[in-house]
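Anyone have tokens for AraC family transcriptional regulator? Sequence:
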Amino acid sequence: MQNNKPVCTENILHITSGEMTANALRELLPQEEILPFNEAMCEGEVHIEIFKDEFYRLRAAAYGVELEDYLQKSPGSFMQNRLKDYPVLYLYFDYDMFCTVNIITLLAFLEQSGYSGRIKFHLLEADGSVAILDTWPVLLGIYEKCYCRVLLKRQRFITGNELFDKGIELYLEYKKRNNRIIRYIKAHSMEEQKHLVRDLVLKFADYGLTDIAAARFITACRDEKR
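Reply: yep, here.
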């Protein structure tokens, strides 16, 4: 594990997987610009034009919130208006499916927006901290195609990055009508919901399954039986 914190000598935009990681990074780099990505792209439907009107509408619908509420937390406005101010991007995401799908969306947007700066990926421990496990440079060129193939068409795509490719396979399984999570819920239908939620979060940690997503799956399965 690399325990050293990032050294900042350029105008860098630090993009994290969410608020928890952003807050942890702010303690280390209080003077830096840190943007939480604040998306859950594995949920709901998507649009080919990222961070545009129809994309925003579909994301708000995916979360079941009003568009105005979604836009308050979305990174879209910042990405659209200020990305050009940063010649270097540092990305901080962990290794589960949830993060992989968000990363693909982010990189696809960078391609759509013609971003030409340098990008460095920081792989984090999956505990909300900024404990860096590995780092590598990211080269753009395949991610808009990957986004369209995987998120819009639900088809396989090989990026050549082992971490991303594993996340893609998990996502395609996750979006199936009778996925592994649903099958597990059906096989343990007599368990109390709070215990089942806990079991799902632990058993399917590689998906990055949250309490809310687990409860949603349980509710959907039980509604289907009525």
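The first strand starts at residue 12 and ends at 16.
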